[in-house]
Design goal:
Elements lengths: L2 E6 L8 E7 L2 E7 L17 H5 L9 E3 L8 E3 L2 H19 L4 E4 L7 H11 L2 E3 L7 H11 L5 H4 L7 E5 L3 H4 L1 H12 L3 E5 L5 H4 L3 E3 L6 H14 L8 H6 L31 E5 L6 E5 L3 E5 L4 E6 L4 E2 L11 E5 L5 E5 L1 H9 L4 H8 L3 H11 L8 E5 L1 H4 L5 H14 L15 H5 L2 H4 L17 H6 L6 H10 L7 E5 L3 H4 L3 H9 L5 E6 L4 H4 L3 E4 L21 E2 L14 H12 L9 H14 L10 H7 L1 E2 L11 H4 L16 H5 L20 H6 L2 E7 L13 H4 L6 E5 H6 L7 E6 L2 E10 L6 E5 L42 E9 L3 H20 L1
Parallel strand pairs: 6-7, 6-19, 8-9, 8-18, 9-10, 19-20, 20-21, 24-28, 25-27
Antiparallel strand pairs: 1-2, 2-3, 4-5, 4-21, 11-12, 13-14, 14-15, 16-17, 22-23, 24-29, 25-28, 26-27, 26-29
Bound molecules: ligand MGD (2 copies), iron/sulfur cluster and molybdenum atom.
Length: 845
């Protein structure tokens, strides 16, 4: 008899609500759940593959142990108990012998288990490496540095009520489906849409303006827009937020890199001068406690005299202060001399003056008139509605200039004056507070704060962000076999052989003879699994609860309780089972739960019910029936929380910091946003550009795939059967390349295969490859797989040079490559001659 079961798709982070119709153990129908508060009944193509994935013949069904040589494909079936004991024993043995560096989790984007996984890392005192240097966290960190709060742009913007939406290097039509749909609703409601992207894609076709850009140079456009805003005094629309809630009016000292302190003035009020900013990681991903005892100086227009802001008391030195936003002011210093000091905004205004459209166009390869048009659209507010800037992966996460680009966009957003923490503008994302709450991640379980490889080079990432080891440094050390590199790798819901830059180092590390154990938990054997010692079968979303601990939803931000629809094949288990059972083997008290249902209810009660004074929910079936708990959104949402003090701007100054001394402390040379050329590019490395003559960007999302997953699923693979590289039609013609030709795509690091996709929508001189690496074959369609290295764009990407200075983002978007036909004998010979030397260099650099 058919039964309808309500659950949640987790084939991407959108987590759409699904109703599955089930007969026996088969899924016979997949429908969107119209009652889901966010996805509202919409699903994408991936959800409809649920039955194909559920019954796929290649699904891993039982825990298996390697019996032959590494990678020889010989396995024996073992029980979960045996597998878990063996993994725990090995981890304990290695940690005792070599210390906590020796056991590493390789973490992917996270498939609903990030925060319990952090708890396990803390429980085991293990180390980890993942894509945090390029995904999400660089954005969070620059919003943390600037706002003292973390924002996720896809969730923060009230797009349906916007006047203009700038999709800046993001394409939520593909990447965050419901956000894409909300943006299209915004358009229907009259919003202008501007898309900044080197490639004209689906979202551009719906836009009022496509702004082509050379990959990696977006900050120059942001500085250009900022310049035009200052020049046209657009900020005057409503300066109150800037005056009262940002450090825009603070005075800057002579160095131009530090803010003026009251202690230096004749009117020093007894301030001591010991007034740096102190920053301490709070132990969770991206969390940092920032404080200072300094008093900062503004020019008060009401009294025509300096006034002081004290962050410790969060108050002005007198009532009724109206700080000047622009200008220079003469002030008497303690030594009797006088100094003239600019406001932060005055300094920024002067700094961006050279960034005119005429100056920026040759840098970004954007036509001058397009830049002016962009300015017109972002400052034309139909019906007084706000302009929302949504920057993401493409524009400010994966370049030499990632955090400064992000800050330029964040501050631009502020100058465009959207309503803050209220409808029609930007909502504070409440979920961050309970997502990375120490109650779930438990940093206290670690005997001492974790140490990560690359700490010295990337302090903001490793120490402040607590975001793990820098991947480039980590994999290079592991490939070389350094003493402090791991001997054991545990990979759950991640595939480092596809996701990490300079991926040859990943492969070399895993295959290094000193690697004693590799564990892989996945639905299918992935390339890492193929060389693993123990392989564990994972349950798909239709087969599990225990998921979705990343709330990460936009308004109204529900907490979701899914149901199991069908039984997983064989002994496949949900990821929370693995985390829990592993945790128990190290510290049973920290892992008191007996099932994933219990874990889910604990989370519901601890973070949603109890804080709201509601009775705990104890019956899982009842909770699953209820399905969606909206405790912080919709009519429960409290607005403008910063005005009541319920939410703080947790920067040193307790103001939004347009001028950031914290940036200076952690690897950046300037407290205001700046532009840096991509380290490998036509300007920074003209010698390389002579041979590698295209500016490459990698990793744009495709509808059909989630990262490297699903090239084996016929429903998905049929949409994009072959690896492809997009190039401009004139560039193709100049190279004698036709649409559909098989090409080598080559960089200084290596080369891969892809079919040419030739069109006018690629910025001339640029090329783009999507994220999926076609690692798995699709037998049903008779389409090949290319393993870890055949069509993997990360073979092309550098991880050791040209990273963002303090955060260490890899330059995945914006490096040099060339393309040529696979039968081009001359190019092939040249490649072969240098291939081995390049491979060696890549590993040892
Ligand atoms: N060049 C380039 N590289 C990039 C990017 C880019 O834009 N350009 N993007 C980067 C970003 S932002 C990210 S987040 C990373 C992502 O990188 P990863 O998260 O490592 O992505 P995948 O390669 O899909 O690896 C995930 C593996 O887990 C399996 N899997 C899927 N769901 C589950 C599950 O629920 N449980 C278990 N146990 N297994 C599951 C899949 O089958 C797959 O083999 O890639 C990064 N790499
Ligand atoms: N279907 C699907 N959805 C996904 C994922 C997936 O693999 N598949 N991955 C998920 C993850 S982990 C993440 S982090 C998000 C990412 O989400 P998004 O940031 O929205 O997605 P991307 O497609 O990676 O990048 C958006 C656009 O950036 C453009 N771009 C490339 N280089 C540049 C540049 O230098 N400047 C500018 N301005 N644009 C550039 C690309 O052409 C692309 O169209 O997607 C998530 N959603
Ligand atoms: S894969 Fe599609 S249906 Fe599933 S959560 Fe993502 S957008 Fe929604
Ligand atoms: Mo990501």
């Amino acid at each position: 008899m058919a039964e309808k079961i309500r659950t949640t798709c987790f084939d991407c982070h959108s987590k759409c609500g699904v109703v599955l119709t089930v007969e026996g153990n088969d899924i016979v129908k997949v429908e969107g759940d119209p009652n889901h508060p966010v996805s509202e009944g919409i699903l994408c193509t991936k959800a409809y593959s649920a039955q194909e994935i559920h019954t796929h013949p290649d699904r891993l069904k039982y825990p298996m142990r390697r019996i032959g040589a590494r990678g020889a494909g010989q396995w024996e079936r073992i029980s979960w108990e045996e597998a878990l004991d063996e993994i725990a024993d090995k981890a304990k043995e290695l940690a005792a012998k070599y210390g906590p560096y020796s056991v590493a989790f390789t973490v992917g984007t996270g498939r609903g288990s990030n925060h319990f996984m952090t708890r396990l890392l803390n429980t085991m005192n293990a180390t980890f490496v993942g894509p945090g240097n390029v995904c999400l966290a660089p954005f969070l960190m620059q919003t943390q540095v600037t706002w003292g709060r973390q924002f996720h742009p896809h969730e923060a913007g009230d797009y349906r009520n916007a006047g203009c939406i700038v999709m800046w290097g993001t394409n939520p039509i593909r990447s965050r489906q419901y956000t894409g749909l909300r943006i299209l609703d915004g358009k229907r409601n009259g919003a202008h849409i501007v898309v900044v992207d080197p490639v004209y894609r689906d979202i551009s076709a719906r836009a009022d303006l496509w702004v082509p850009v050379r990959p990696g140079t977006d900050a120059a456009i942001a500085l250009c827009m900022t310049n035009l805003i200052f020049k046209n005094e657009y900020w005057k629309k409503s300066p109150e937020f800037l005056k009262q809630w940002t450090n825009g009016p603070f005075l800057v000292d002579e160095s131009q890199t530090y803010l003026l302190r009251r202690s230096r003035l004749s009117d020093n009020g007894g301030a001591t001068g010991d007034e740096g900013i102190s920053v301490a990681s709070t132990g969770g991903l991206g969390g940092a406690a920032v404080s200072t005892s300094a008093q900062f100086v503004v020019w008060d227009e009401n009294s025509n005299a300096p006034a002081y802001w004290d962050p410790t008391t969060e108050s002005w030195s007198r009532d009724n202060v109206s700080p000047a936003l622009f200008g220079s002011y003469e002030i008497e210093l303690a030594d009797g001399t006088k100094g003239v000091f600019k406001t932060v905004l005055q300094q920024y205004k002067e700094q961006v003056e050279p960034w005119t459209p005429e100056a920026v166009s040759p840098i970004t390869w954007t036509p001058v008139e397009t830049l002016y048009k962009m300015y017109d659209l972002i400052t034309d507010d139909p019906d007084g509605k706000a302009t929302l800037v949504a920057p993401y992966l493409g524009s400010c996460m994966m370049t030499t200039n990632a955090l400064q680009s992000g800050r330029a966009m964040t501050i631009l957003q502020m100058l465009l004056e959207p309503p803050i923490d209220e409808p029609g503008g930007i909502f504070f994302n409440t979920f961050w507070e309970f997502m990375s709450d120490p109650k779930i991640t438990r940093p206290d379980l670690r005997p001492e704060p974790a140490h990560y490889l690359g700490e010295d080079r990337y302090p903001l990432f490793c120490k402040v962000g607590n975001a793990g080891s820098n991947p480039g440094e980590f994999w290079a050390a592991a490939a070389r076999g350094d003493d402090n590199a791991p001997r054991m790798y545990i990979s759950m819901a991640s595939d480092a052989t596809g996701s990490q830059a300079q991926v040859k180092n990943v492969w070399a590390a895993l295959n290094n003879p000193r690697t004693e154990m590799i564990v892989s938990m996945d639905y299918f054997l992935n390339p890492e699994g193929e060389i693993a010692d123990i392989v564990l079968p994972a349950a798909h979303w239709s087969e599990r609860v225990g998921n979705f601990d990343e709330e990460l939803y936009p308004e109204p931000c529900p907490f979701v309780v899914p149901q199991i629809a069908v039984q997983a094949p064989g002994e496949a288990k949900d990821d929370w089972f693995f985390l829990r059972e592993m945790g128990k083997r190290f510290n049973p008290e920290a892992w008191p739960w007996e099932s994933s249902e219990e874990m889910q209810l604990w989370r519901l009660n601890e973070f949603h019910q109890k804080p709201n004074g509601k009775d705990p929910v104890t019956d899982y079936e009842q909770a699953a029936e209820h399905a969606y708990y909206v405790e912080y959104g919709a009519e429960n949402r409290k607005l403008r929380k910063y005005e009541t003090g319920a939410v703080k701007f947790a920067t040193g100054s307790k103001k939004v910091e347009i001028f950031s001394e914290m940036m200076l402390m952690f690897g950046y040379d300037w407290p205001l946003p700046t532009f840096t050329e991509p380290a490998e590019g036509p300007v920074a490395s003209p010698d390389v550009y002579e041979t590698y003559d295209l500016v490459m960007t990698t990793g744009a999302r495709d509808y059909a795939f989630y990262h490297s997953a699903w090239t084996n699923i016929a429903h998905q693979r049929v949409l994009e059967p072959w690896p492809y590289v997009e190039i401009n039609d004139q560039d193709a013609e100049a190279r004698g390349i036709g649409d559909g030709d098989w090409l080598w795509v080559e960089s200084l690091r290596g080369r891969i295969k892809a079919k040419a996709r030739v069109h006018q929508g690629v910025t001339r001189g640029c090329a783009s490859m999507c994220r999926q690496n076609y690692k798995q074959a699709c037998d049903e369609l008779g389409l090949p797989g290319y393993g870890w290295d055949g069509a993997n764009p990360n073979l092309l990407v550098d991880a050791l040079h040209g990273n963002d200075p303090g955060w260490g983002s890899d330059p995945m978007r914006g490096f040099l490559a060339k393309v040529y036909k696979i039968d081009d004998a001359e190019q092939n010979a040249r490649y072969e001659a240098t291939r081995l030397a390049m491979a060696d260099a890549a590993q040892t650099r």
